[in-house]
Amino acid sequence: xxxxxxxxxxxxxxxxxxxxxxxxxxxxxxxxxxxxxxxxxxxxxxxxxxxxxxxxxxxxxxxxxxxxxxxxxxxxxxxxx
Length: 81
Hints:
mainly alpha
């Protein structure tokens, strides 16, 4: 049981680092968008923000799937083969 807790903490920590890093980038883009008057540049930056938001959603979905795998013990079962 203790081993599963360490695996979950490690997975959550990795996801938190990625989400934090991408959130900083999104915040920087939003800061740039506020001061920008060129609509073309704003459109490109909004597209980047959308892409980065999709990455965050994907990371969180992968984290949820990883927690399910750890809970079911798939890793220990795979070690048998």
